[in-house]
Design brief:
Elements (H helix, E strand, L loop, with lengths): L2 E7 L13 H7 L2 H7 L3 E7 L18 H18 L4 E6 L5 H14 L4 E6 L20 H5 L20 E6 L4 H8 L4 E4 H7 L2 H14 L2 E7 L21 H14 L2 E7 L10 H13 L14
Helix pairs in contact: 3-4, 8-9, 9-10
């Protein structure tokens, strides 16, 4: 049995499309608490986090969207993540992907405090490897991986003592990368597995290699699951749809492999926009995938109903 802390993070400042602030409650309505409890876990719903006032964002490019609000969320989530790691496996219910600026930096701080290496699995259509200096859209939900790996341009954000080494980051499902991100990734040691590679080799092989490395290092593993990792045909409730994403079975295979590895120590569920959903089908799928990661076998999955 695992003690799981559910932390709502209704972050909606990382981009201009509104609606992700409803994500945490949509996951609750879709049965996340009940699904995890039915697997024998102890589940504590800590409610929705409330950040402090917007932080002065001097020195950042003027075109950034709501940087002060995102900074406040980063500070609050970093503190909440580090605290929750002390006695639980935290599941952060988003909220747009800017929440990972705080969640990943918080779990990293815990890993450093106990002397273990931090690894990050990024399940996403996008690499989120922009910095505040390179993003043309000004959307900070595209910057978390750059922040936690120590790329320049984040001087206004809480400092990270020991960034995650590039080689400890694995991206799977990538299919939309801007030119500046591409150039930076080429110069990095981040493992990037796009959908072309997955089509050729399958999704299990690169994940297995990464998990083997985490296990060999005795690492802690943070998984960040973006709705747009999934194909929009099965998960329409996201403002950044990119065709050609992971199928239902590919996504469940990833979750089942993660559970079998027993390496996952924290989880983000991000970019769920219930305003764009179809009768809750995306929220229900995210709950189903989370249950698979935490022990539900494929033969135990209930038949969904969208009536």
């Amino acid at each position: 049995m695992t003690h799981i802390s559910l932390i709502g993070a209704p972050v909606d400042s990382g981009k201009t499309t509104r609606g992700c602030l409803m994500g945490p409650d949509a996951l609750r309505v879709a049965g996340l608490i009940e699904a995890l409890a039915s697997l024998g876990h102890q589940v504590s719903d800590l409610g929705n986090l409330v950040p402090g006032a917007a932080v002065a964002a001097s020195g950042l490019p003027a075109h950034l969207h709501q940087p002060g609000e995102t900074l406040a969320w980063t500070i609050a989530l970093r503190e909440a993540a580090q605290a929750a790691m002390a006695d639980s496996l935290p599941v952060f219910m988003g909220g747009d992907h800017a929440l990972s600026l705080g969640t990943v930096s918080g779990v990293m701080a815990h890993a450093e405090a106990i002397g273990r290496p931090q690894f990050v699995l990024w399940l996403d259509a996008h690499s989120d490897f922009h910095t505040p200096l390179t993003t043309s859209s000004g959307h900070l939900h595209g910057t978390p991986v750059a922040y936690v790996t120590g790329r320049p341009g984040f001087d206004t954000f809480p400092p990270i003592a020991t960034p995650v080494p590039d080689a400890n980051v694995c991206m799977i499902g990538i299919r939309s990368v801007d030119a500046a991100e591409h150039a930076a990734l080429i110069d990095s040691d981040v493992a990037v597995h796009d959908m072309r590679q997955i089509d050729e080799t399958g999704i299990g092989a690169p994940l297995r290699r990464f998990l083997d490395r985490v296990a060999a290092a005795g690492g802690m593993l943070h998984v960040s699951l973006d709705v747009d990792f999934l194909d929009p045909a099965i998960a329409p409730a996201v403002g950044t749809t990119v065709p050609g994403g992971a199928t239902f079975r590919e996504a469940h295979l990833v979750m089942e492999m993660l559970h079998e590895s027993a390496l996952v120590t924290s989880l983000d569920l991000v970019e769920l926009n219930p305003f764009l959903d179809d009768r809750g089908r995306t929220a229900a799928l995210m709950v189903d995938l989370t249950a698979s990661l935490l022990g539900r076998r494929v033969f135990d999955r209930p038949t969904p109903s969208f009536a």
